[in-house]
Amino acid sequence: MLDEITGAQTVDWRSNVLIPALAVLSALIVGAVIIAFGDLETLRLYGSDPGQAVLDTLNRIGSGYAALFEGAVGGLNPISETLTRAAPLILAGLAVAIGFQAGLFNIGANGQMLIGGMFALVVGFQLDLPIFIHIPLAIVAAFIGGAIWGGIPGFLRAKTGAHEVITTIMLNFVALRLVDYLLTVQFFQVEGRTDPVSKSVLDSARYPKLIDFINPRFRVHIGIFIALLAAWGIWWILYRSTWGFEFRAVGANPDGARYAGMNVVLLYISVMALAGAMAGLAGGDQVLGTLGRATPNFVGVIGFDAIALALLGRSHPFGVVAAGLLFGGLAAGGQAMQAATDVGVDIVQIIQALIIVFIAAPALIKAVYRVRAETRGVEVGAGWGT
Amino acid sequence: MGHVTVATAPVDIIRTPAEVRRAKILAIIYLLLAAFTLYAFGLGTEESATFVLSRSQDAIKVGNLSIPAGGFAFVTSAILAFIGARQWMRGFGSRTNLVLALALGLFALSFLAWAAAGTSFSLVGLLQEAIKRAVPITFGAVSGLLCERTGIINIGIEGMLLGGAFTGAVVGSTLGAVAGMVGAALVGGLLAALLAVLTVKYTVDQIIAGVVINILVLGLTSFYTSQILVDNQQLNNSPIMRAIGIPLLSEIPLVGPVLFDQNIFVYGMYVLVAMTTFGLFRTKWGLRTRAVGEKPRAADTVGINVFRMKYLNVMLGGLVAGFGGAYFTIGSVGRFDENMTAGRGFIGLAAMIFGRWHPVGALAAALVFGLADSLQIKLGILDTPIPSEFLAMAPYLVTIVVVAGLVGRSRPPSNYQPYVKE
Amino acid sequence: MTEQRTDGALERAHPVSDHEPLRTLELRGITKRFPGVVANDNVNLRVKKGEILALLGENGAGKSTLMNILYGLYSADEGEILINDEVRHFASPSDAINAGIGMVHQHFMLVPVFTVAENVVLGVEPINQLGVIDIDEARQDVRSISAQYNLAVDPDAIIEELPVGLQQRVEIIKVLFRDAEILVFDEPTAVLTPQEVEEFFGIVRKLKNDGKGIIFITHKLKEVLEIADRIAVLRRGAVVGEAEPATATESQLAEMMVGRPVELTVAKDVAQPGEAVLEVENLEVLNIHDHIAVHGVSFRVCRGEIVGIAGVQGNGQTELVEALTGLREVVGGTVRINGKDLTHANPRQIHTAGVAHIPEDRQRSGLVLPFTLTENFVLDGYYDEPYSRGITMDWERSRQEAERLIAEFDVRTPGADVLASNLSGGNQQKVIVAREFGRKVDLVVASQPTRGIDVGSIEFIHDRIVEERDDGAAVLIVSTELDEVMAISDRILVMFDGRIVAERRPEQTTAAELGLFMAGSQSETV
């Protein structure tokens, strides 16, 4: 029996590095096909001059991806952009990853970001404090706002069995509408204006930029450090603290956790609150760092990208950082690609979705590339049941 | 030989403290609604609201209905208070969701009377719109329940609707409306096939697979809209299905124009709900579907092909959602806009849960949500101090209340574990 | 209403199969490998109509795998299945069903929310041209089979509301409805009282006399000797011998089954009970369906004694144990441990009060399978020294403790970093026992401590439990295996329908007497 046991205890480098890398590669290849179909003229050319059409298609894909790459890492400004976009992605990715570790599916990062951002916004424009108090206070506000919005589904799951997938989706929409509404309220609006744009946060609450002394265009700010610090903190909690042991135990086997004397109700609430808090920080990053104010749905689809990112990072905080940098690069590069070529930025969204497909179904990757690796697909508590 | 009967032990239902607590929370919600109705809509509202019940083109016209908003609010408040009291003392058992739907409808009417006090307001228009708005929600909900009854969660309804809307517009513009509808259904089916392969064959987490479909479709439709449709408007200009009045039925006052003077999507919704109800609970296919969803291994051991049933039903669900998606373009405005489904698929999911995984229940829930949607639009006409954003939130909040089990227990019908043959 | 044909088949409005009469079934050279294990090793078996073949083997011997191959659920790596001496290939259960094979699974294959009639016809539904199910016909068919085989059950009853004994009848009706001629019963008596077992054997004999062939899978020696015409013994996937019930003895069979002489009793000294550790008074507990599962139960367990609770599964034992260990809300009565009122205590408080708990389902609640052994060893003590300080886990120290326990409790594993999911059932159970007994405890609550594990592990765990008793702990054991309760207990309580209906000393009672209490046909106030 012993040889049966010795096989796969720890998941090897193949599943942590090779499979994700192949997933990204596969997504880029499929993305190329999708780009090819986005050009009617070239498609028509296939009827008359197939040779030229093939060249045009390859040229289009090549120039698109080249621009994408260039826009992500080709110089100081692209790197500044990549890091700027990576910060909220990492934080939101942590929000999803924490949930996964505890067996909860947090689809609500978007809503939690919005609420966290609004909390930070109020502190940011309403209080007038010295910078070394104002920024931390605004960050705490973002943390609390997100924690509240994340804690609600945690509470509902623990107390009533309401599945967090449904409640977080619904709370996303509620948060979206709530922000829409708040931006029509005078308290938030810029004086004398009625368009749905909030007041700007005061300079004392704005995240300082890092390299704007080189060129004021460079947007990267301290948000990326906050994200890295948060990732380290989450790693410590998950793998070095008793609290994290409880998170992981309840995630792997809630019945076992209950049997072992853990307070599952409190755990579900605290896990979701912590996850929400991370998303709140991501919202704070947008409001206090990148944007400096709130607009309708100022978080875009970061909360959904975060799901792909958490999966790509295997729900490990450091994996999330790596995936966040990659997605930050894709986002920055995508924007540059849209500007430089006629390939639209939405392709990034598609590539990210494809990455999830390939990551979530490792069997698919293994079949295509004939990789041998001990992997398990990601699985979160199945069903709506209580 | 006589009947063989065996006495089974009587099942004594004892409500647990938790259940009693939930039932009481719901009762308190009713009582608060009653108090709110009384305070906000009843007190100080002297004028009457005039509801227009017929359209100018109707053959049989009925007079306008004039309701004293204040008085109506008093009556509504009394009824809500009664429901609340009964909920507190006895509960409504299996009719809890139905009662909640009726109470919400009544509350909405009272709200409407108050909002329209002193003016006149077309009730026909409102209800007609509500039915239309219920269409994609119902299609989404039925799609979801076809999947869930067979043990697969479909979070990707939103993406299937969006894919159907896009295909409906493009194919409808080039090959005509019928082809557009067929194409939309097929694209929905194709997306569902992806869901089925990922979840059944590759045992990908069902929620992840659904999320992927949503993101993928949003990305694809947005990408091709900006790459192609923006510069080729002729590809985004589909025919629109007009309303067809059903002879005789459409001439019934109020009911006729609301229910029977609609376009093919609305009639499709009626047929869909009737057929799925009949199919699920009366036919061989339905019995097997439910068996696979409840206990796949039991189905497998009597020779039912579990995987085939799952593929079949998920793809059926996809066809339904895809067709429902075409409503947004062919059934409504004739052109595609990025992310035009705006979360209707998720409301469909909510309607499925609110309707307790039953097609008729889903339809009822979709109508309530459709009414909320329709109110939100029509309120723009009336000058009310209630921000429309709050009405837009209502379906989501109601859903949270429902899944939190405050409204009876909503036990899902399925075993969602991926079926592995070992 | 029903005409009986001479061959025992039923005349029904809706015939469901048309296979040729099945005379013999043979498995020839069946081999099945799973990664790292040979589950079946060149197995040969033959059964003919009108015969009862018992397939005897301990847990993990490969009985279920073999039957799943026969039923088309798995495919064999080597070997063939012959019917009437013709090779047949079963790719799915429907092939097996069509060939006339029926199986009553250990875990019933019934849809809980369906009615009896719906379950019976599932897969071979009587329908009209529109595909609509004719439920009246289904009811009629259930009634006629019920009548013919004395398998009374209401066709309109919902399965989940039926007791397990009746659910088993539905399974048998289901098989007969498909005109099965070889019936396979997988551990059919596990959920029955001794009297129900007798009744069940009556049904089996009737089936045999009607010309059905029976394969009876079990690990219970007594039953084999009572019912079988022939006995085949399976060990580590291979048939190690055949026996005739007339000549074989229990200890011979046990030795064949395990491969070495086996003590059929638990060696222990006479108990020396001390003061009461666990005192339960009028305890009332609800089950998951919110019905009362434990009705005012009172008993006490003292230092130095083992009290066993016997009973058929589902008579409130699970709820009782969960209530005692803080996992289930108590709605009435009191629980005192060492004189302290712990009625509404949570599992953590009960753990710290010195209680060891071996849970009923080791994989569901006793272990976290994707965790390493180290993590599993600290599972219920992680929050305190020596495993952690403040909120910081001390993994180094935890690992040392884990290694100590692995050695002391003879857990067969290459190391402490192995995932719990990679251990065999017996070793998983040893991990739990090691964790729970690894510290000094006053009370042991063990629920089904040996379910589904090999004989070696069973002996080890029984010995450790007796050791705990001799070290002065009070022990409460709950088991549905009457033999186990009788072998290990110093005092036996019988639970039926949520009540304790009898108290006996093992030396003063018999299985038959306890069986009557377990079935509820007798009770006395305790």
Keywords:
heterotrimer, B: 422 residues, mainly alpha, three-stranded mixed sheet, two-stranded antiparallel ribbon, 15 helices, disordered N terminus, C: 526 residues, alpha/beta, six-stranded mixed sheet, 25% strand
Structural description of this entry:
Chain A has 386 residues and is mostly helical. Helix content of chain A is 71%, strand content 0%. Chain A has 16 helices and no strands. In chain A, α2 (13-36) packs across α4, α4 (50-73) packs across α5 and α5 (76-101) packs antiparallel against α12 (264-290). By secondary structure, chain B is mainly α. Chain B has 15 helices and 5 strands. Chain B has a 3-stranded mixed β-sheet with strand order 2-1-3. Chain B has a two-stranded antiparallel sheet with strand order 4-5. In chain B, α4 (123-148) packs antiparallel against α12 (306-333) and α5 (157-175) runs antiparallel to α6. The radius of gyration of chain C is 25 Å and the shape is globular. In chain C, the strands form 5 sheets. In chain C, strands 6-7-8-3-9-10 form a 6-stranded mixed β-sheet, sandwiched between helices. In chain C, a hairpin with a 2-residue loop joins β4 (78-83) and β5 (86-88). With 526 residues, chain C is α/β, with parallel strands linked by helices. Chain C is 31% helix and 25% strand. Chain C contains 17 helices and 22 strands. The chains are: A mainly alpha (386), B mainly alpha (422), C alpha/beta (526). Chains in contact: A-B, A-C, B-C. Chains A and B meet through α8, α13 and α15 of A and α7, α13 and α15 of B.
Secondary-structure blueprint of this entry?
The complex is a heterotrimer of chains A (386), B (422) and C (526).
Chain A: H1 2-6, H2 13-36, H3 40-48, H4 50-73, H5 76-101, H6 109-126, H7 131-160, H8 164-182, H9 223-240, H10 242-252, H11 254-259, H12 264-290, H13 302-312, H14 317-340, H15 346-360, H16 362-369
Chain B: H1 17-42, E1 48-52, E2 65-68, H2 69-89, H3 96-115, E3 120-122, H4 123-148, H5 157-175, H6 177-201, H7 206-229, E4 244-245, H8 255-260, E5 261-262, H9 264-282, H10 284-294, H11 296-301, H12 306-333, H13 344-354, H14 359-378, H15 388-403
Parallel strand pairs in B: 1-3
Antiparallel strand pairs in B: 1-2, 4-5
Helix pairs in contact in B: 1-2, 1-3, 2-3, 3-14, 4-9, 4-12, 4-13, 4-14, 5-6, 5-7, 5-12, 5-13, 6-7, 6-12, 9-10, 13-14, 13-15, 14-15
Chain C: E1 24-34, E2 37-48, E3 52-56, H1 63-70, E4 78-83, E5 86-88, H2 93-98, E6 101-104, H3 116-121, H4 135-149, H5 164-177, E7 182-186, H6 194-209, E8 213-218, H7 221-227, E9 230-235, E10 238-243, H8 250-258, E11 276-286, E12 292-302, E13 306-310, H9 317-324, E14 330-337, E15 340-341, H10 347-352, E16 355-358, H11 362-366, H12 373-377, E17 388-389, E18 392-393, H13 395-408, H14 425-437, E19 443-447, H15 455-470, E20 474-478, H16 482-488, E21 491-496, E22 499-504, H17 511-518
Parallel strand pairs in C: 3-8, 3-9, 6-7, 7-8, 13-20, 13-21, 16-19, 19-20
Antiparallel strand pairs in C: 1-2, 1-4, 4-5, 9-10, 11-12, 11-14, 14-15, 17-18, 21-22
